[in-house]
Each structure stands twice: as C-alpha cells, then as structure tokens.
Amino acid sequence: MNPHLSQLHPYPFEKLRRLFEGLTPPTDKSIISLSLGEPKHPAPDFIQQNIISHLHGLGNYPTTKGLPELRQTIADWLTRRFQLAPDSLDPETQVLPVNGTREALFAFAQSMIDPANRPVVIMPNPFYQIYEGAALLAGAEPYYLNTLAENDYLPDFEAIPETILRRCQLFYICSPGNPTGTIIDQAGYQQLLDMAERYDFVIASDECYSEIYADEQQPPIGLLQAAYALGNTDFKRCVVFHSLSKRSNIPGLRSGFVAGDGELLAQFFRYRTYHGCAMSLPTQHASIAAWQDEKHVAQNRELYRQKYTAVIDILKDVCTITQPPASFYIWLNTQIDDTDFAKKLYQQEHISVLPGSYLSRLAHGVNPGSHHVRMALVAPVADCIEAAQRVKRFLLTL
Ligand SMILES: Cc1ncc(COP(=O)(O)O)c(C=O)c1O
C-alpha cells in the first residue's frame, strides 16, 4: 500500500456528516444547505444543446492535448480577460484542457514534485483540501500559510521562514480565495513572483472563482496578468487553473484548463498522457461554446449580487458581515466554537453550514478556520433569504 494514503485527512463533508449524525433538526423546517460550494443556478441551455449536438464525438478517443480550437479559444479568453498582448500565449504549448481543476490541481503536484531533498508545498490555510492531499501523496510536506482577519484574510508571504522557502518546490495560491473570497493584488503577486525566482519554486494559481466577482468594473487580476505586467512574458514558474464549474454553472461537465509556463506544461502533458485523463469530445465542444460567451457569466454574477445584498441586509444588525470582493461565500466569524455553531444552527433551524476548522489545520499556534463558518450562497434567492432569516433568529439566541 502507498504509505502516504494513511496521511490523508477525512474530507470536510465526511466530518460534517458525522457532526450532524444523531441530531434531530426541526421537522417543520426543510433543510437549507449552505455548506456545499456546488453552483445551483441553471446550466445554460446553449451549453447543454452543444453537448447533445456533439454526442457523435463519443465514437472517438479524444487526445490528451485536446482540440486545437479549444486551446485557441482558451488562449483568446485569457488574453481578453487578463489584458495580455495579442499572441502572448501559445495555444500549442501553453494551454492544456483538464477535467475540472480538482483533478488538475492534484495531478500537477504529482508531476512537479521531486520527492528527494525533503520537498515542501506551501498552501494557504484554510484551503481547498486537494492541495494538501496532492502534496502528501507526492511525498512532500505541506506548509500552511495562515490567512487571518488581521491580514484581511490574505496570505502574508513575508511570514514564511527562509528554511521553508529553500525547500519549497510548489506554492498553491487561491485567488479569489475559498473560503474567504479575498483577492491577491498586483503587489502581492509581485512579492510572490520575486520569491519564486529567488527560491526557484513553481506557483500553482487556483483561479476557479475569478469570474464570480462583486464589482463589474473591477474583475480580479490573475497570476498570468501580474507576471506579464512585470515582464515575465513567458510566464516562467507560473501555472493558472481555471474552471467552467462556477463560471458557467456546469460543475458536472468537468471542464477547465491549465495555462502558463510552456516547459512545465510539457512535463505535465507527459504525465497526463500516461495518467489517461483526456477530455471527451462533446465536453470539448461545449467548453468552446462556454468560454466564448460572457453574457451568461454576467447574469450569473448578478444573481449572486442579489443574494449577497438580501442576506447581508437581513444579518447586518446581528453580526459583522460584509460582501467579499469575489466568490459566492460568506466567511462568518462565529464568536463561539465553529462546530458548536454549526451543530446548534442545524438543530434549531435546519441549516447546514461548514465549520471553518474543517477547512484548515492548526499551524503556528492557531487554527485560522476556528470561530468561522463558511456559508455558500448557492441556493435560489428565496432560499438564501429564508436561510438568512433563520440564521438571524439563531444568532439572537446566542
Ligand atoms: C478553490 C477551489 N478550487 C478548485 C475547485 C474544483 O473545481 P472543479 O474541479 O469543478 O473545476 C473548487 C471546487 O469547489 C474550489 O473551491
């Protein structure tokens, strides 16, 4: 057996299931789930139709590299969205389709980590759980970089000891962040890019919430944009991960891409050829259609905006709550223990939220997820409003 398997932590939703086991929520209130970050807005019809009209593609083995049209569409989208100069991304060498970012974030570590020399993988804390599992299974030691209220829930790159940076091979960042919804700015990226050069590590930038933002005039910047603006025009040491799951409400399609440093992607491509994770042709065609359309994405953002406005309006008098610049989460400070909060809220109001400590680890003397819960505003507007009213009633009992 692979000995690293025993190092894997139970997944947060497994812990949540156990937390709620044996509890009796009120039967007169239906469950409203704010725990799972699964988009619930309808999948756009034109994407569904596109899959149907390309079903004949199931008769062919797809290639690992994907259709040239898909890679070109992605390169064009990145160029538009992140203000790169025309032709600054080569779709042949700098873009690869992936079956959702989850598998790619995992597989990337397996192909990048050299298990000799005590490798370290740095990741934010709290974090998307795949980063940690990927690091452990690749034989690396995770280093948890706390994102705390005192730093506006952003990673403090300066706080990482030099001994760790020297051993770092891979650095996961997540902007906009899950669960915090915060955004790394140009100065933050510059700091990280300088460190990557000095200590020679790879940056894996998870940007799967980049299209779910509050201000239509200020879309979050991304790693490629920051690198390009600093003159790193071949995106050395930089790889970004993007997904259609949240952007286009099609988490079931399993479609995303990685893009950036061509030398790193050549090795990742080699790994994927053997791993056997090519994207099916109907999915590739539907993805082309999805990346080419922005209208449905703007409508999607508008729906989240309505929910944030309504929910914050209900809760603002009973707790400290603000809309994060991006994502569809509220990272709520609970005052009391976060697991107690989640348990009581479920028992009294039949609402499920995710305890923050299920998304984080104790590091450097603190668990940055404790005393927080993550609420995902994915349910329909009316359900989010009903949930906020119940949370308010609950908060008033504390
Ligand atoms: C931060 C983050 N990264 C990546 C993913 C994976 O998304 P997908 O595999 O659907 O692209 C998720 C999904 O919840 C996420 O929250």
How would you sum up this structure in a few lines?
The protein has 398 residues and is α/β, with parallel strands linked by helices. 40% of the residues lie in helices and 14% in strands.
Shape, per Cα inertia axes: globular
Question: Which residue ranges are poorly predicted, with pLDDT under 50 across at least 5 consecutive positions?
Answer: none
According to DSSP, the number of beta strands is 12
Q: Average the pLDDT over all residues and give the rounded result.
A: 97
**Bound small molecules, deduplicated:** pyridoxal-5'-phosphate
Radius of gyration: 21 Å
Quote the distance from N terminus to C terminus. 48 Å
Measured by DSSP, the beta-strand proportion falls in 5-15%
Please estimate the helix content.
25-40%
Would you write up a description of this structure?
The chain is of the alpha/beta class and about 400 residues long. The strands form three sheets. Strands 2-8-7-6-5-3-4 form a seven-stranded mixed beta sheet, with helices on both faces. Helix 2 runs antiparallel to helix 11, helix 4 packs parallel to helix 5 and helix 4 packs across helix 10. The radius of gyration is 21 Å and the shape is globular. The site of pyridoxal-5'-phosphate has 13 residues, from helix 4.
